[in-house]
């Protein structure tokens, strides 16, 4: 042990190392343990005297990562050694050559994949975050263990995120949600995926996280009683049949509950599938596992009635990440729907350990082919030298689809695609040339266009013509990364032409309003359309993706009445105020003042935040800040790709300016209900109506209200008042303002 460590620190480090060795017990050979000891001693000396933000010795982090690698992912000696050494090259004077000489070429290659790029190798216009991720994925072609160790590294960082400043917490949590948890899901690491999502939610939306955690804790006793009551008859029946089994309960993760509440617009009490029961059994020899799973399903549905549309057979057609199980939702006691998952021990290990366990069973069946095919797609993407790091990250993200459909070729070959995939996506999946010349398809003998969205089970016959070539409009509905890349490649040569066309269109449009295309004007336009630079703006306009019909709205001057004020553009060539060029302090929270003359910020059109929303700021060019809601998908993407430009933001009290918001109502129609709604709105000062639209059909009404509002508090108060009106079933805020 080195002299730079106190005795207490040495004891702490030794305890962590002993824990690691215990986790290695029976999984690693004696020779492997000797190599692990050598790697630990080397890393401990290399990191001696260095502390983490939390104040503990730095070596604790590699030790914790190594323990996750062996205990939660199930990897062996080489991966454990690589995990122990993963920060040595980046943070100390040792080189990859030293690692290679001491621990071999394989460990050196994995450590290289885990080492971030230095500043000097990152192009100025590119995102360092995205480039580092691309570099890490490069090693996929040689060794998937790099990704698995990176996931363990990310998991430990998320578990110890408390010691980081708020803007770093946001950046790391967003990056985790955007890339790392879908990646864990894709590699079949469900436990790690769920924990990463929960921890991300804890730092992005702490109030929502704590509230759901509290509700789950409060219902524990009631839930335990339901589980005992529910599983007793199943246990009895399985014992009678001589099945060797274990039954466990699995609670829906906090993030899954929150996500369902957001996407379905329901309350915590309306999330009915909080609980799942898992039956894991030891299959009898010489009888197919699939048949035994269906036998158990039959026993369960003899006791409880199944929900007809909720039987999922992932055994006949396993998920893309190798997951196999039989799922059924049944009506349990007390009128509660309960999901039951039926698996063999082999299926359970693959479900929990994912990729690592998957290859252990490689010779048993062929399900790993889907994973191999996915890896092959990633390798193809990596070989495309033309895409920049941000484009690559977007393409990779598209390849991480978690919901998939299964369709068939005319000859019966099965093809797996992401949900919402179109005819063109399918054509490119079969062959690039077929995609390039596709003019439509026949599905069940019915002619459909190229943009038709496929459904699981469709048999697709692609129709092509030699005169057809890729169309730019295809990019607006394509889903798969492969199809998007192929179409983009066919237009890459014309990029300069598109930029020039776009520049001319924008200049012509601006001249109609007597505005010169200054950098400030272009910056505001770029921000308005959620783009990163003016070249992107020109290209999007030149290719016809952006229509500038509403330019007069975007560039309107300030209006002093109670209307919404979103964007402020300088019409005269006045010199900017000194405050506007002041360097923004990224570590401090940005205060959103009401007077736009004082504050250099804009509100993002993608999520339309209003005062009181949880928000973050994105520093675009010229120290201008664009404000997004924290749960906005665009903000999540920016935080994952350009997290260093993210800043925490808070509102001051807004009294003068009002902001356009949209709410949707539905309920049972009756005489006078519309009058009641409008009366409540008009009585609540601080709120003005812009548009009211109601539609009635078979006794049910739906309404859209566009309101000018000061803050979230005013909006929440209005929603709770509207909910009290007799006949109203649902009131929700809609982010998209058309």
The mean pLDDT is 80
User: How far do the termini sit from each other?
Assistant: 65 Å
Which CATH first-tier class of the largest domain would you pick?
Mainly Alpha
Helical amount: 40-55%
CATH-wise, what's the superfamily of the largest domain? Hypothetical protein af1432
Report the portion of residues in β strands: 15-25%
Instruction: Give me the side-by-side strand order of the main sheet.
Output: 1-2-5-4-3
User: Which fold name fills CATH's third level, the topology of the largest domain?
Assistant: Hypothetical protein af1432
How is this structure best described in words?
This protein has 738 residues and is α+β, with helices and mostly antiparallel strands. It has five domains: 7-210, Hypothetical protein af1432 (Orthogonal Bundle), CATH 1.10.3210.10; 212-368, Beta Polymerase, domain 2 (2-Layer Sandwich), CATH 3.30.460; 402-478, Ubiquitin-like (UB roll) (Roll), CATH 3.10.20; 487-574, no CATH class; 659-734, Alpha-Beta Plaits. It has 29 helices and 19 strands. A five-stranded mixed β-sheet has the order 1-2-5-4-3. A five-stranded mixed β-sheet has the order 11-15-13-14-12. Strands 17-18-16-19 form a four-stranded antiparallel β-sheet, covered by helices on one side. β4 and β5 (337-344) form a beta hairpin.
């Amino acid at each position: 042990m080195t002299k730079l460590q106190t005795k207490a620190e040495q004891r702490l480090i030794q305890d962590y190392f002993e824990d690691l060795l215990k986790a290695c017990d029976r999984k690693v050979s004696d020779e492997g343990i000797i190599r692990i000891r050598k790697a630990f001693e080397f890393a401990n000396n290399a990191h001696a005297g260095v502390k983490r933000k939390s104040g503990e010795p730095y070596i604790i982090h590699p030790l914790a990562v190594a323990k996750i690698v062996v205990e939660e992912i199930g990897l062996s000696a080489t991966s454990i050694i690589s995990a122990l050494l993963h920060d040595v090259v980046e943070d100390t004077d040792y080189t990859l050559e030293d690692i290679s000489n001491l621990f071999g070429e394989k460990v050196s290659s994995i450590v290289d994949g885990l080492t971030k790029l230095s500043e000097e190798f990152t192009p100025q216009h590119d995102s360092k975050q995205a480039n580092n991720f691309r570099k890490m994925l490069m090693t996929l072609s040689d060794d998937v263990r790099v990704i698995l160790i990176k996931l363990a590294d990310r998991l430990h960082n998320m578990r110890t995120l408390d010691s980081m400043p708020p803007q770093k917490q946001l950046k790391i949590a967003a990056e985790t949600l955007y890339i790392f948890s879908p990646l864990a899901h894709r590699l079949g690491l469900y436990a790690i995926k769920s924990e990463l999502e929960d921890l991300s939610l804890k730092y992005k939306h702490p109030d929502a996280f704590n509230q759901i955690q509290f509700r789950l804790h409060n219902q524990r006793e009631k839930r335990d009683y339901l589980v005992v009551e529910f599983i007793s008859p199943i246990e009895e029946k399985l014992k009678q049949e001589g099945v060797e089994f274990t039954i466990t309960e699995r609670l829906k993760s906090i993030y899954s509950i929150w996500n369902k509440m957001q996407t379905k617009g329901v309350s915590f009490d309306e999330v009915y599938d909080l609980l799942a029961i898992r039956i894991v059994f030891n299959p009898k020899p010489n009888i197919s596992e699939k048949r035994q799973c269906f036998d158990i399903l039959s026993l369960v549905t003899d006791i409880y009635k199944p929900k007809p549309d909720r039987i999922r057979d992932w055994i006949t057609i396993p998920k893309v990440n190798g997951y196999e199980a039989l799922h059924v939702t049944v009506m349990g006691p007390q009128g509660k729907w309960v999901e039951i998952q039926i698996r063999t021990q082999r299926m359970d290990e693959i479900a929990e350990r994912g990729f690592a366990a998957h290859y252990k069973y490689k010779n048993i069946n062929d399900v790993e082919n889907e994973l191999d095919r996915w890896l092959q797609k990633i390798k193809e993407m990596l070989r495309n030298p033309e895409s920049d790091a941000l484009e690559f990250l977007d393409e990779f993200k598209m390849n991480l689809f978690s919901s998939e459909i299964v369709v068939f070729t005319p000859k019966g070959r099965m093809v797996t695609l992401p949900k919402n995939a179109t005819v063109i996506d399918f054509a490119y999946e079969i062959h690039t040339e077929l995609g390039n010349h596709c003019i439509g398809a026949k599905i069940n003998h019915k002619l459909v266009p190229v943009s038709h969205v496929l459904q699981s089970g469709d048999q697709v016959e692609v129709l092509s013509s030699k005169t057809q070539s890729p169309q730019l409009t295809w990019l607006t509905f394509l889903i798969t990364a492969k199809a998007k890349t192929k179409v983009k490649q066919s237009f890459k040569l014309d990029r300069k032409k598109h930029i020039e066309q776009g520049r001319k269109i924008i200049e012509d449009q601006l001249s109609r309003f007597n505005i010169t295309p200054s950098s400030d004007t272009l910056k505001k336009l770029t921000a308005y359309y959620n783009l990163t630079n003016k070249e992107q703006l020109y290209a999007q306009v030149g290719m016809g993706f952006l229509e500038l019909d509403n330019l007069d709205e975007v560039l309107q001057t300030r209006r002093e009445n109670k209307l919404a004020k979103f964007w402020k553009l300088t019409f005269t060539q006045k010199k900017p105020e000194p405050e506007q060029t002041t360097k923004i302090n990224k570590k401090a929270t940005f205060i959103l003042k009401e007077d736009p003359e004082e504050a250099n910020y804009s509100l993002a059109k993608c999520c339309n935040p209003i005062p009181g929303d949880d928000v973050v700021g994105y520093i675009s060019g010229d120290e201008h800040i664009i404000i997004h809601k924290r749960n906005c998908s665009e903000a999540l993407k920016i935080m994952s790709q350009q997290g260093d430009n993210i800043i925490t933001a808070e509102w001051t009290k807004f009294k003068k300016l009002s902001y356009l918001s949209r709410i949707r109502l539905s309920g049972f129609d009756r005489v006078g209900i519309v009058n009641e709604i409008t009366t409540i709105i008009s009585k609540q000062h601080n709120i003005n109506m812009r548009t009211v639209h109601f539609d009635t059909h078979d006794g049910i009404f739906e309404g859209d209200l566009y309101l000018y509002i000061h803050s979230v508090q005013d909006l929440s108060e209005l929603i709770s008042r509207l909910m009290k009106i007799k006949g109203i079933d649902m009131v929700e805020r809609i982010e998209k303002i058309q």
